[in-house]
Design goal:
This protein has 169 residues and is mostly helical. It has 4 helices and 2 strands.
């Protein structure tokens, strides 16, 4: 049950990379909030592309980290699904355990911050979407024709459109 030092260094490097990607996503999320508030569609599109790239990179790093964890689990003789970063900090010596714990804490804190920013942005999106839908309903009411129901039950649409504007000048 020995741990290869190069595997520990690999996992540390991957965790540092993951932390950097999450921090970049957090910065993008904050920029996204400003673009939402300013209704800057071009900036929102740029940020979305940037976020997609960062998420893709994060998935790649996560896959690499999973592979190294699998190797470590094999060398330690423990099931892959039980070897978490927390468990790994208990199995390795100093200074690795301190570095692993520091990275774990930093990643968790950044993930919490990222979740808060994303939830705030989602709320802004939903509010903006609600305003847009309300405006569209208002505009639709301006241009739809008024339908009149006759005593016979038949409908008749007059030639005027909307409630404010008519089709005649």
């Amino acid at each position: 049950m020995s741990i290869n030092p190069s595997d520990i260094e690999k996992i540390l490097a991957l965790l540092e990379g993951e932390r950097g990607l999450y921090e970049s996503l957090l910065v993008s999320g904050k920029r996204e909030r400003e673009a939402l508030i300013g209704s800057n569609i071009d900036e929102l599109n740029r940020i979305n592309k940037e976020k997609e790239d960062l998420i893709s990179k994060a998935h790649t790093v996560e896959g690499q980290r999973s592979s190294v964890i699998d190797d470590l689990a094999g060398s330690l003789g423990c099931p892959k699904n039980e070897l978490t970063v927390t468990r790994l900090t208990q199995l390795v010596e100093e200074p690795w355990s301190t570095r692993l714990e520091s990275l774990r804490s930093s990643i968790l804190e950044t993930a919490r911050d990222l979740t808060e920013v994303n939830e705030g942005n989602r709320d802004l999106f939903e509010h903006s979407l609600g305003l847009l839908r309300s405006s569209l309903r208002f505009l639709e009411n301006l241009v739809t024709s008024n339908t009149v129901y006759y005593g016979s039950g038949k409908m008749h649409t007059n030639d005027q459109s909307g409630r404010v504007f008519s089709g005649q000048v």
